[in-house]
Write a structure and sequence with these properties.
The chain is about 45% helix and about 15% strand. The protein contains eleven helices and ten strands. The protein has helices at about 30-40, 65-80, 90-100, 115-125, 150-165, 185-195, 195-200, 215-220, 230-240, 250-265, 265-270; strands at about 1-5, 20, 25, 45-50, 85-90, 105-110, 125-130, 175, 205-210, 245. The strands form three sheets. A six-stranded parallel β-sheet has the order 1-4-5-6-7-8, covered by helices on one side. The chain has a two-stranded antiparallel sheet with strand order 2-3. The longest helix is centred in the middle third of the chain and has 19 residues, at about 150-165. The two termini are about 30 Å apart.
Protein backbone atom coordinates (compact mmCIF):
# COMPACT_ATOMS: atom_id res chain seq x y z
CA UNK A 1 0.00 0.00 0.00
CA UNK A 2 1.58 3.25 -1.16
CA UNK A 3 0.97 6.32 1.01
CA UNK A 4 -0.10 9.61 -0.58
CA UNK A 5 -0.58 12.38 1.99
CA UNK A 6 -2.42 15.49 0.77
CA UNK A 7 -1.56 17.52 3.87
CA UNK A 8 0.74 20.37 4.88
CA UNK A 9 1.87 18.80 8.15
CA UNK A 10 2.31 15.03 7.90
CA UNK A 11 5.43 13.95 9.78
CA UNK A 12 7.43 12.78 6.76
CA UNK A 13 6.05 14.09 3.47
CA UNK A 14 3.85 16.99 4.56
CA UNK A 15 3.41 19.73 1.92
CA UNK A 16 5.21 17.69 -0.78
CA UNK A 17 2.09 17.65 -2.96
CA UNK A 18 0.80 21.18 -2.50
CA UNK A 19 1.32 24.59 -0.94
CA UNK A 20 -0.40 26.95 1.47
CA UNK A 21 -2.01 30.09 0.04
CA UNK A 22 -3.72 32.57 2.35
CA UNK A 23 -3.68 29.98 5.12
CA UNK A 24 -5.34 27.28 2.97
CA UNK A 25 -3.43 24.20 1.79
CA UNK A 26 -4.06 23.62 -1.90
CA UNK A 27 -3.17 20.27 -3.46
CA UNK A 28 -1.24 20.23 -6.72
CA UNK A 29 -3.23 17.69 -8.72
CA UNK A 30 -0.47 17.07 -11.27
CA UNK A 31 2.07 16.33 -8.54
CA UNK A 32 -0.34 13.99 -6.78
CA UNK A 33 -1.05 12.06 -9.97
CA UNK A 34 2.66 11.79 -10.77
CA UNK A 35 3.29 10.42 -7.27
CA UNK A 36 0.52 7.86 -7.79
CA UNK A 37 1.85 6.89 -11.22
CA UNK A 38 5.37 6.43 -9.83
CA UNK A 39 4.13 4.25 -6.99
CA UNK A 40 2.19 2.04 -9.37
CA UNK A 41 5.24 1.72 -11.61
CA UNK A 42 7.26 0.66 -8.54
CA UNK A 43 4.81 -2.12 -7.75
CA UNK A 44 2.14 -0.71 -5.43
CA UNK A 45 -1.06 -2.76 -5.46
CA UNK A 46 -3.11 -0.28 -3.46
CA UNK A 47 -2.86 3.50 -2.93
CA UNK A 48 -3.93 5.13 0.35
CA UNK A 49 -5.03 8.77 -0.07
CA UNK A 50 -5.49 10.98 2.99
CA UNK A 51 -6.20 14.66 3.61
CA UNK A 52 -5.81 14.93 7.39
CA UNK A 53 -2.49 14.62 9.18
CA UNK A 54 -2.61 12.17 12.07
CA UNK A 55 0.92 12.65 13.40
CA UNK A 56 1.16 13.16 17.18
CA UNK A 57 -0.15 16.62 18.03
CA UNK A 58 -1.77 17.16 14.62
CA UNK A 59 -4.73 19.52 14.44
CA UNK A 60 -8.11 18.28 13.27
CA UNK A 61 -9.32 19.63 9.93
CA UNK A 62 -12.91 20.33 8.96
CA UNK A 63 -14.80 17.82 6.83
CA UNK A 64 -15.07 20.34 4.02
CA UNK A 65 -11.34 21.07 4.05
CA UNK A 66 -10.55 17.36 4.01
CA UNK A 67 -12.95 16.74 1.13
CA UNK A 68 -11.54 19.68 -0.86
CA UNK A 69 -8.07 18.16 -0.59
CA UNK A 70 -8.98 14.56 -1.30
CA UNK A 71 -11.93 14.28 -3.68
CA UNK A 72 -10.37 15.92 -6.79
CA UNK A 73 -7.39 13.57 -6.50
CA UNK A 74 -9.55 10.48 -5.96
CA UNK A 75 -11.74 11.32 -8.94
CA UNK A 76 -8.83 12.09 -11.27
CA UNK A 77 -6.87 9.06 -10.14
CA UNK A 78 -9.71 6.61 -10.65
CA UNK A 79 -10.62 8.15 -13.99
CA UNK A 80 -7.09 7.88 -15.38
CA UNK A 81 -5.58 4.78 -13.74
CA UNK A 82 -6.57 1.17 -13.14
CA UNK A 83 -5.86 0.98 -9.43
CA UNK A 84 -7.46 0.06 -6.13
CA UNK A 85 -7.67 3.14 -3.93
CA UNK A 86 -8.11 3.43 -0.18
CA UNK A 87 -9.35 6.65 1.42
CA UNK A 88 -7.69 7.45 4.76
CA UNK A 89 -10.52 9.15 6.62
CA UNK A 90 -12.81 9.06 9.64
CA UNK A 91 -15.46 11.29 8.01
CA UNK A 92 -18.77 9.62 7.11
CA UNK A 93 -19.39 12.27 4.44
CA UNK A 94 -16.05 11.63 2.75
CA UNK A 95 -16.59 7.87 2.97
CA UNK A 96 -19.82 8.19 1.01
CA UNK A 97 -18.36 10.63 -1.52
CA UNK A 98 -15.33 8.37 -2.01
CA UNK A 99 -17.59 5.37 -2.61
CA UNK A 100 -19.45 7.33 -5.30
CA UNK A 101 -16.08 8.05 -6.95
CA UNK A 102 -15.21 4.34 -7.07
CA UNK A 103 -12.86 3.99 -4.08
CA UNK A 104 -12.40 0.42 -2.85
CA UNK A 105 -11.54 0.73 0.84
CA UNK A 106 -11.95 2.94 3.90
CA UNK A 107 -8.85 3.20 6.09
CA UNK A 108 -10.03 4.68 9.40
CA UNK A 109 -7.59 5.41 12.23
CA UNK A 110 -10.60 5.80 14.55
CA UNK A 111 -12.05 2.39 13.64
CA UNK A 112 -15.45 3.84 12.67
CA UNK A 113 -16.03 5.44 16.08
CA UNK A 114 -17.18 8.84 14.82
CA UNK A 115 -20.98 9.30 14.82
CA UNK A 116 -22.44 7.90 11.63
CA UNK A 117 -19.22 6.21 10.47
CA UNK A 118 -20.37 2.62 11.05
CA UNK A 119 -23.57 3.22 9.13
CA UNK A 120 -21.78 5.06 6.32
CA UNK A 121 -19.20 2.30 5.92
CA UNK A 122 -21.89 -0.37 5.79
CA UNK A 123 -23.92 1.59 3.23
CA UNK A 124 -20.97 2.01 0.89
CA UNK A 125 -20.20 -1.71 0.76
CA UNK A 126 -16.47 -0.89 0.69
CA UNK A 127 -13.78 -2.87 2.44
CA UNK A 128 -12.77 -1.33 5.78
CA UNK A 129 -9.48 -1.17 7.67
CA UNK A 130 -10.03 -0.68 11.40
CA UNK A 131 -7.08 0.75 13.31
CA UNK A 132 -6.37 1.04 17.01
CA UNK A 133 -5.60 4.48 18.38
CA UNK A 134 -5.55 5.56 22.01
CA UNK A 135 -7.33 8.93 22.25
CA UNK A 136 -6.98 11.45 19.41
CA UNK A 137 -3.89 12.54 17.44
CA UNK A 138 -3.41 15.64 19.58
CA UNK A 139 -3.44 13.65 22.84
CA UNK A 140 -2.56 10.06 21.96
CA UNK A 141 1.07 10.24 23.08
CA UNK A 142 0.33 11.64 26.55
CA UNK A 143 1.65 8.84 28.80
CA UNK A 144 0.07 5.81 27.07
CA UNK A 145 -0.20 2.86 29.46
CA UNK A 146 -1.21 -0.78 28.95
CA UNK A 147 -1.05 -3.89 31.11
CA UNK A 148 -0.81 -6.07 28.00
CA UNK A 149 -0.52 -3.91 24.89
CA UNK A 150 -0.99 -6.75 22.40
CA UNK A 151 -3.93 -8.27 24.23
CA UNK A 152 -5.64 -4.91 24.79
CA UNK A 153 -5.15 -3.73 21.21
CA UNK A 154 -6.30 -7.07 19.80
CA UNK A 155 -9.37 -6.99 22.05
CA UNK A 156 -10.26 -3.48 20.90
CA UNK A 157 -9.95 -4.50 17.24
CA UNK A 158 -12.13 -7.56 17.83
CA UNK A 159 -14.84 -5.38 19.39
CA UNK A 160 -14.70 -2.86 16.53
CA UNK A 161 -14.87 -5.65 13.96
CA UNK A 162 -17.91 -7.07 15.74
CA UNK A 163 -19.54 -3.62 15.73
CA UNK A 164 -18.85 -3.23 12.01
CA UNK A 165 -20.30 -6.65 11.22
CA UNK A 166 -23.39 -5.88 13.31
CA UNK A 167 -23.80 -2.62 11.36
CA UNK A 168 -23.74 -4.53 8.08
CA UNK A 169 -20.10 -4.57 6.96
CA UNK A 170 -19.22 -7.89 5.31
CA UNK A 171 -16.83 -9.83 7.57
CA UNK A 172 -14.77 -10.80 4.53
CA UNK A 173 -14.14 -7.12 3.79
CA UNK A 174 -12.58 -6.21 7.16
CA UNK A 175 -8.87 -5.57 7.71
CA UNK A 176 -7.36 -4.71 11.10
CA UNK A 177 -4.36 -2.52 11.96
CA UNK A 178 -2.74 -2.43 15.44
CA UNK A 179 -1.79 1.21 14.92
CA UNK A 180 1.96 1.46 15.41
CA UNK A 181 2.76 4.86 16.89
CA UNK A 182 -0.83 5.77 17.69
CA UNK A 183 -0.90 6.05 21.46
CA UNK A 184 2.01 3.71 22.13
CA UNK A 185 5.51 4.12 23.51
CA UNK A 186 8.53 2.79 21.66
CA UNK A 187 8.43 -0.26 23.92
CA UNK A 188 4.76 -0.87 23.13
CA UNK A 189 5.46 -0.60 19.39
CA UNK A 190 8.29 -3.12 19.43
CA UNK A 191 6.35 -5.49 21.65
CA UNK A 192 3.56 -5.44 19.06
CA UNK A 193 6.03 -6.02 16.25
CA UNK A 194 7.64 -8.90 18.13
CA UNK A 195 4.25 -10.50 18.82
CA UNK A 196 2.59 -9.49 15.55
CA UNK A 197 1.31 -12.98 14.87
CA UNK A 198 -1.15 -12.61 17.78
CA UNK A 199 -3.09 -10.05 15.75
CA UNK A 200 -3.58 -12.56 12.93
CA UNK A 201 -5.21 -15.09 15.25
CA UNK A 202 -8.57 -13.29 14.99
CA UNK A 203 -8.87 -14.36 11.37
CA UNK A 204 -8.77 -10.93 9.73
CA UNK A 205 -6.05 -9.74 7.32
CA UNK A 206 -3.68 -7.46 9.25
CA UNK A 207 -2.13 -4.25 7.92
CA UNK A 208 1.27 -3.09 9.17
CA UNK A 209 2.10 0.62 9.02
CA UNK A 210 5.63 1.16 10.32
CA UNK A 211 7.06 3.30 7.53
CA UNK A 212 9.43 6.09 8.69
CA UNK A 213 7.77 6.24 12.13
CA UNK A 214 9.33 7.41 15.39
CA UNK A 215 9.83 3.80 16.52
CA UNK A 216 12.28 3.44 13.62
CA UNK A 217 14.00 6.63 14.72
CA UNK A 218 14.26 5.31 18.28
CA UNK A 219 15.94 2.14 17.03
CA UNK A 220 18.31 3.84 14.57
CA UNK A 221 18.82 7.35 15.89
CA UNK A 222 17.93 8.71 12.44
CA UNK A 223 15.47 11.45 11.35
CA UNK A 224 12.46 10.52 9.16
CA UNK A 225 14.21 11.07 5.82
CA UNK A 226 16.97 8.60 6.79
CA UNK A 227 14.74 5.75 8.03
CA UNK A 228 14.31 3.72 4.85
CA UNK A 229 16.53 0.79 5.89
CA UNK A 230 14.98 0.59 9.35
CA UNK A 231 11.47 0.80 7.91
CA UNK A 232 12.20 -2.00 5.47
CA UNK A 233 13.56 -4.20 8.25
CA UNK A 234 10.44 -3.57 10.35
CA UNK A 235 8.23 -4.37 7.37
CA UNK A 236 10.03 -7.70 6.95
CA UNK A 237 9.42 -8.55 10.61
CA UNK A 238 5.73 -7.72 10.21
CA UNK A 239 5.55 -9.93 7.12
CA UNK A 240 7.14 -12.76 9.08
CA UNK A 241 4.45 -12.24 11.72
CA UNK A 242 1.70 -12.63 9.14
CA UNK A 243 0.99 -9.11 7.83
CA UNK A 244 -1.05 -9.18 4.61
CA UNK A 245 -0.74 -5.47 3.73
CA UNK A 246 2.32 -3.29 4.26
CA UNK A 247 1.67 0.47 4.19
CA UNK A 248 4.74 2.37 3.02
CA UNK A 249 6.02 5.71 1.75
CA UNK A 250 8.76 3.83 -0.14
CA UNK A 251 7.14 1.45 -2.56
CA UNK A 252 10.11 0.18 -4.57
CA UNK A 253 12.19 -0.82 -1.54
CA UNK A 254 9.19 -2.38 0.20
CA UNK A 255 8.19 -4.36 -2.88
CA UNK A 256 11.74 -5.71 -3.08
CA UNK A 257 11.58 -6.73 0.58
CA UNK A 258 8.25 -8.45 0.00
CA UNK A 259 9.78 -10.29 -2.96
CA UNK A 260 12.63 -11.60 -0.83
CA UNK A 261 10.24 -12.62 1.94
CA UNK A 262 7.97 -14.39 -0.56
CA UNK A 263 10.94 -16.28 -1.96
CA UNK A 264 11.94 -17.48 1.50
CA UNK A 265 8.37 -18.60 2.12
CA UNK A 266 8.31 -20.43 -1.22
CA UNK A 267 5.39 -18.40 -2.58
CA UNK A 268 7.14 -17.20 -5.73
CA UNK A 269 8.76 -20.56 -6.42
CA UNK A 270 5.39 -22.29 -6.11
CA UNK A 271 3.75 -19.71 -8.40
CA UNK A 272 6.50 -19.94 -11.00
CA UNK A 273 7.50 -16.28 -10.69
CA UNK A 274 11.16 -16.82 -9.87
CA UNK A 275 13.50 -15.46 -12.57
CA UNK A 276 17.01 -16.83 -12.57
CA UNK A 277 19.79 -14.59 -13.88
Amino acid sequence: MGVINLTPDSFYDGADLGAETDGVFRVNLDKALRRADNMLAEGARLLDIGGESTRPGAREVSTQEEMDRVLPVLEALLERMDVIVSVDTSSPDLMQAAAAAGVGMINDIRALRRPGALEAAAQTGMAVCLMHMRGEPDTMQEQPEYQDVVGEVAGFLRRRADAAIEAGVDRERIVIDPGFGFGKTTGHNFTMLNEFVRFTEQGFPVLAGVSRKSMIGAATGRPPHQRLAGSTAAAMLALSGGARIVRSHDVAATVDAIGVHSMVQGDRLANGTCHEQ
